[in-house]
Write a sequence for this structure.
């Protein structure tokens, strides 16, 4: 049986915990995720955001990687952040010298801890490894660095040796040691045993990976065992299955144990920034930051949520800088549809609502998500009101195969005709740019997301483009289908803009 907290589940195991901080290694361990490479500017932006969110330590990279990486780290240290900025260093004096060249505040010194790493990887012995660790710590502290010693593969190390190695590092002047579950191998009870032994020696950090899906659990267990600095990455990006996701640790500590580690309201912005810059999209069902984390579709859930917002939510979305969304689909109920219509300022009678709910469910039954535009179109039909379009596409030409790809559009906007041409990375991008340009006098809506689905196979497939656009406080999602992806994209964008200009998306009764 797993007995994590001495058999007292009724007590808060973190009651005595007053100060837990986070170390963000998105720029080092996160960047080691397959296919990720961040530019110096991108690293600086992420570091600035993490700093604003109150994250205590930012590991900016590995100074030993090369000249470019060192310039990037220097870019971060020159930002004058409140956070402590560190570099990863292998157990080599040369690595410490290179970190010093980057003006970092401290280093994360990684030394082997498991026999596999001590003998097979580094080719040394336990005793020689312990002695060299002591020398390196003394060298680094002599140069004024804050030093955290990470025992690599600590979760698979002999626990007595790990304790001796980390104890020697602390005796030599290291500021703290770190329990590292480098390959994400440990169970919570193993984590508890390791961290308890290390935390008895001195300040201890924890570094967990998600190979068993236990990264957050192990991070929390580490804190319960006495660790007070949790390593992790934004969105949990990292090698293999990734590191622990910082935002998940932060909300779990706050929600479950009243331990605050960062400004939670910034988690959503930080997540989107990292997703954009790394090109690793957020899975819709991801905790805290996923698209669906605060979206209710099922009729029963929507109805309950409208009666009491906390009915089907552990904490309000605003806690993490987000908003609740009611989505419509085959589970849609009267309450949810009425709420969605009210959001767009559309009044309907009870009979009209019955009819609209029925139609929404029929669209949902075909496996389609019901977008705002779908709902409003249905409502328009049921109410017998036809919307007067303000903007319409008259003509569209896009040319690819030339450099750069170009497109021109002609739109009717009210009584005027607007024409514009633009270039882009491809014909769709060029056409979207031309459309934005043509509409720039009219409105400046922001494109929040753009998504394409091919409905059938083959090169003549019908594609559906879904765009989400916002202006001021209003957001509208519109889809358009066409076998020509450029035409579908422009049509969706124009339709969304048209509805945003309308103010409510449906023409007022007049
Ligand atoms: Zn790692």
């Amino acid at each position: 049986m797993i007995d994590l907290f001495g058999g007292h589940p009724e007590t808060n195991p973190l009651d005595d915990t007053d100060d837990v901080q986070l170390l963000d290694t998105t720029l080092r361990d996160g960047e080691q995720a397959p296919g990720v490479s961040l530019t110096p500017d991108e690293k600086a932006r992420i570091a600035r955001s993490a700093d604003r969110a109150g994250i205590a330590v930012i590991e900016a990279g590995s100074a030993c990687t090369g000249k470019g990486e060192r310039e990037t780290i220097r870019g971060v240290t020159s930002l004058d952040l409140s956070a402590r900025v560190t570099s990863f260093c292998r157990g080599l004096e040369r690595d410490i010298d290179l970190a010093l060249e980057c003006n970092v505040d401290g280093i994360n010194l990684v030394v082997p801890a498991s026999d596999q790493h001590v003998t097979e990887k580094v080719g040394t012995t336990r005793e020689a490894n312990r002695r060299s660790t002591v020398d390196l710590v003394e060298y680094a502290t002599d140069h004024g660095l804050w030093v955290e010693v990470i025992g690599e593969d600590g979760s698979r190390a002999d626990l007595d040796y790990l304790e001796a190695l980390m104890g020697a590092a602390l005796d030599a002047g290291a500021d703290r040691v770190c329990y590292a579950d480098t390959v994400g191998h440990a169970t919570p009870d193993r984590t508890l045993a390791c961290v308890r032994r290390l935390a008895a020696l001195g300040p201890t950090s924890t570094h967990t990976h998600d190979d068993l899906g236990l990264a957050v659990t192990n991070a929390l267990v580490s804190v319960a065992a006495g660790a007070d600095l949790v390593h992790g990455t934004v969105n949990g990006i990292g090698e293999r299955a990734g590191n622990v996701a910082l935002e998940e640790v932060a909300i779990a500590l706050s929600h479950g144990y009243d331990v605050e580690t960062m400004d939670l309201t910034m988690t959503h912005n930080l997540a989107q920034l990292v997703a954009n810059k790394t090109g690793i999209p957020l899975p819709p069902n991801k905790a805290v930051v996923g698209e669906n984390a605060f979206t209710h579709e099922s009729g029963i859930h929507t109805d309950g949520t409208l009666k009491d917002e906390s009915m089907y939510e552990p904490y309000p979305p605003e806690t993490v800088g987000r908003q609740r969304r009611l989505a419509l689909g085959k589970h849609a109920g009267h309450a949810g549809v009425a709420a969605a219509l009210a959001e767009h300022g559309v009044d309907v009678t009870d009979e009209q609502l019955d009819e609209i709910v029925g139609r929404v469910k029929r669209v949902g039954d075909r496996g389609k998500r019901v977008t705002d535009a779908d709902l409003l179109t249905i409502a328009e039909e049921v109410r017998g009101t036809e919307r007067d379009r303000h903007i319409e596409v008259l003509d569209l030409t896009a040319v690819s195969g030339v450099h750069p790809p170009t497109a021109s559009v002609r739109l009717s906007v009210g009584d005027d005709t607007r024409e514009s041409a633009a270039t882009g990375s491809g014909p769709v991008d060029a056409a979207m740019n031309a459309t934005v340009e043509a509409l720039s006098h009219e409105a400046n809506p922001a494109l929040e997301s753009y998504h394409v689905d091919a409905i059938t196979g083959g090169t003549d497939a019908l594609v559906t483009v879904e765009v989400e656009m916002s202006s001021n406080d209003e957001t509208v999602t519109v889809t358009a289908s066409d076998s020509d992806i450029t035409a579908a994209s422009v049509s969706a964008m124009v339709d969304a803009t048209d509805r945003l200009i309308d103010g409510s998306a449906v023409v007022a009764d007049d």
